[in-house]
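Lab channel / #folding
Pinned by the channel admin:
"Please post every new chain as: sequence first, then the structure tokens as a reply. Keep commentary short and put observations after the output so the thread stays searchable."

First post following the new format, from NK:
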Amino acid sequence: MKWVCKFIKDKNSNNEISKSDFYVEFYLYLIKKLYNLYKKNPNESLTHGIPSFDSVKKSYDTIIGLSKEKKKRIINESLAKRENEFEKSIFSTYKATSYFINLTKDKLEFVDHNNKLKDIGEKLVSYRSNDFKLSKKEREVLFSSIIKSDFHFFLSLSLLQKVQKKVKNLSIDEIHFEFLVEKFGIRHFRYTEASNEKNYSKVREHWIKDLDFLDKNFNVKKAFLDIIFNEGFEESYKKVKKLVDDYYKEKIVLKSKFQEKIDFFIDIYETTPKNELDFLSLQDIADQMKLGKKSFQNFISEFYESEKNKYNIFFNNVVQAISGKNQYFIRNRPVVNIRIKELNK
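Reply from TO:
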């Protein structure tokens, strides 16, 4: 974000760059900047979402030094084709730089739609900057903007980090999304399409880290609490914190225990010999889990509903008459054996 603001301050303070060329010009600016940063600081690590040196170098070697028209032609062809490794590198790096612009303009509003810095953007670029680390003043400005545009999402994800510490067998992304659905009725993340929910959640997680937002006990640091209260979000903070605390007591403890059962179930399935069609008797699993008929019926029904988007789950009702194996029911259909295959494998 600060690179977008710095680019505007240095290169476009008087709208020298047309709107149609803005994305391309920023792309070229950032490719040069990243190439030089990586070359001078090979052991430093850049933050989440920054293209790798390999991608930057391929893009740099392909287009830097050419005429403006040739650069634009190669970029446009690469975005359309994405056939060879150089075109793919240009596509991935261009996509990243476009995201930086969109985040800076549309989400956090440091820049207006005429590509001019707003007051908060001017404030951000006025501070001395380190390319690898945010200064205290920069963190404060960024955080002030984040809470104005993304308060409930960012704060709830931050507070749920403590839950992740206590309950290590659950995905923080899934916990956060379910929390938003249940407590706020939000079924997709603001600013993103549903398919990008997890990606944007990762961006928030890196904001938490880059801002140094939480103390060692995963509580919000006092400096940020002061900003929250001074910006008029004290009551909103208390509300979200209570909702997170309640959600932990109401849902997460039970969810963690259920996940332990799932992990045990999958471990049994993976380590127990199966028949020639790769099916395993549900009763054999129930016996190893030491669950009675009713308890296992409840478990296997819930397992199917909660995990069917993660696994391909197949059942059959083939049983030898002399075996005496118990039948179970999935959506009122009698089943005896199960075969599981993880999706995308």
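NK: DSSP finds 14 helices and five strands in the chain.
TO: also worth noting, Residues 63 and 71 are 6 Å apart (CA to CA).
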